Structures are given as C-alpha cells and as structure tokens.
Amino acid sequence: MNNNFLTFIVFLVFGLGCSPSAEEKGKEAIVIFDEKDLPPAIALKGKKYNFTEFLDPRRILCVGDFLVVSEKTNGDLLHILDIKSGKYFRSTGKNGFGPGEATYVAKLEQAFEKESFWSYDLEQKVFSKYYIKDSTSKLAETQLRLGEVMYYVWKMTWASDTSLMVSMVDGNDKYLEVSLQGDTLNTFGTWDSMLDRKDIPYNVISSIHQGEIMASPDKSKFIVAGRIRDYIDVLDKVSGRILSIRGPVDEIPEFEVDYSQGYPMAAVLSDRVSYFGSFAGENLIYALYIGKDYKIISDFNNLNRIFVFDYKGNIVNQYTLDYPLASFTVDEENGIIYGLTIDQNPNVVAFKIPEKAC
Q1: Are 229 and 274 in contact (CB under 8 A)?
Q2: Which of the chain's ends, N or C, has fewer CB atoms near its CB within 10 Å?
Q3: Number of helical (H) and strand (E) elements in the chain, helices listed first
C-alpha cells in the first residue's frame, strides 16, 4: 500500500478465532484514500464486438467460456455468447408471466453448478436458473419465488445455496443474511454508522449509499460500491467485520429529506455518479469509477476508470478505459474485463489486463 494511504481504524481489532458478537458486528474499519494514493493509471484499449442479436443490452456476466447479456425487450431477455469463438451461441429467457418465464432482469449471477447462472426478475420477485449448454429451452430450468419478506428487500445476492445476503428498504441493519423462507439468520453493520447526524431516517441514509451487492466466488466476501457516495463496503461473512473503503473524494453528497410522498425520501442535489458497478473476484475487488455527472459519462477527455483493491483495502491497480460502460464483469482466469458500452451502438467490449497487472 502507498505510504500516503491514510488508514483510520474506527474500532480496535476484533478478537481472533471467535465469532463476533452482535455489538462487534456493528463496528467498522474505515480506509480513506484520495487521488494521490492511486498508482499510475494503466490505459486499457477495448476491443468492441459487433453482435447484432441484441439492441438494448443492460447487464453482462462471465460464466466459464461464455458471456451472458441481458436486455429489456419484448422477445428473449438473455443472450449467450461464446467467448472463444466470438460468436453468438443462443438466446434464452422467454419474456412473460407464465411458468419458466420472466419479465425484467435486474441481476445476473453465477449459480453453484458449472455453466449455469441465476437471473433475478425484479417485477415478479423470482429467481430463474438457466444452463448454458445442457438445454435448448428458453424457459428457466428452475424458478424460485421468494416469500413476502422479499417485497421489502432492496438489493440481494446469494450468500449460500440456501440463503441470501440482502439490504432492506428500511431499518438500521445494513446487511442481513436471510433464509429462502425469509427468516433472518444474521445481521451486519448499521446505517447510522455512515452519518454523524442522528436526525436522518434509516431509509434515507441507505438511499444515498445505494449500490448493488456482489459476492465473491466462494460467498465468503460481499461488496457494495456506492453509486452516489464514493465508498466500497467489504463484508467478511465469517468474521462479521465490515471494511469501508472511502475515496477518492470521500464526500457525502448534498441532499435533503423529502416528505412530499408522505414518507421520508432522499432528494440528492447532484447528478454526480461515483461507482457505476463492481465485481467481487477471488482475491481482488474491481470498481468502475465515474466521478462525474451521468450526462457526460462518455466524455473522452475524462475517461472512466476501474480501481482494483484487495480485500484488505490496499490499492492494487488503476485502469483507464477508452469506452464508457453500463455494466462489466471480469474473467479472472484469462485476465479480461468485459463490458457493455454506453454509446449510439451499445455492444460488448473486451479489455485485456496486462499480465504484470493481474
């Protein structure tokens, strides 16, 4: 880590070899960095593909030798691409409300079985599992409709094959591990630790710290990269500890509490985007940093960057990208970042990570 990298430990080191108590789980370590702490940027040149089978790609996931791309469409919701050949493999994910169908892909993540993945339908609150090769059907092989408690869940990811890591729309608990029946198995951290003010409702605090939950391959680490505030939470599920990486600005956006809808909501007074996505790898965290107004996300004079950290909060690498991305995933085995471009002709783009930087 850079010697100038400022590390502030809010609470003393937790006891080793012991399960953390409920009080310990509410405590966090904070690491703060700024621009001068970042290593020299490595420019990555993207190779853009020309797949014509999708028009409005939204999310991308690497599954072995394949890429899965979702889109919002009246036809099939999912497209599978063969990475090795660079060719379109097949489509799946029939759009509809019938058995095995889905309507809106809010999240893609790898399933526990090889060459399989989950798609989460936000509208129907259902997980659908698909296999890459072993099926030609466009219907999901398995669907899991979640219980009533999931209507109060804001974001989620798999924590094990029988539980989910979630954040709720309200309440002071930051992250909760819940069973598929909705029972709370564990809680981690509190939202009131993120602000010094005590007069702000919990749902407002969580709203200005919004970001998607991502899980490491072994489901032992979970990360959230803030879209509005520039922070990355790193949760170790086994120890219950949370490391909060803050920077490169480390600034809480200006906001107001709006009660016009009859309940408190966050009214953020800025269109500035901090992190636009993240990826939790085996040993590394990748975070797509924008740091500017969304309307100028494609400004080539101010390139988007990917910061790479280890799970201890050390800065490992900084990459600049010559294409702005809407979503990205990482093939760690082959050292390639795949993204979906934000431009007039959105498509898949591949960035090869230099071997010395992997």
Answers
A1: yes
A2: C
A3: 2, 29
- What distance in Å separates the CA atoms of residue 112 and residue 155, rounded to the nearest whole number? 20
Q: How many CB atoms lie within 10 A of CB 91?
A: 18
Q: 231 has which bridge partners? A: 246
pTM of structure: 0.90
For residue 341, the one-letter residue type is: T
Average pLDDT over the chain, rounded to an integer: 88
Q: Which two tokens stand for residue 142?
A: 């398995």
**Contacts with 160 (C-beta within 8 Å, 6 or more apart), sequence order:** 219
DSSP annotation string for 236-287? ETTT--EEEEE-SS--PPPEEEE-TTSS-EEEES--EEEEEEEEE-SSEEEE
Residue for token pair 């029972």: 183
- Tell whether the model's pLDDT for residue 4 goes beyond 60: no
Report the C-alpha gap between 133 and 102 in whole angstroms: 20
- Residue at 26: amino acid letter: G
| CB contact set of 173 (below 8 Å; sequence gap of 6+) | 187, 188, 189, 190, 191
Cα separation, 322 vs 292, in Å, equals: 16
Q: What is the DSSP letter of 102?
A: B
**Residue 235 pLDDT greater than 70, yes or no:** yes
Residue 67: other Cβ atoms inside 10 A:
23
Cα gap 348→342, rounded to integer Å:
10
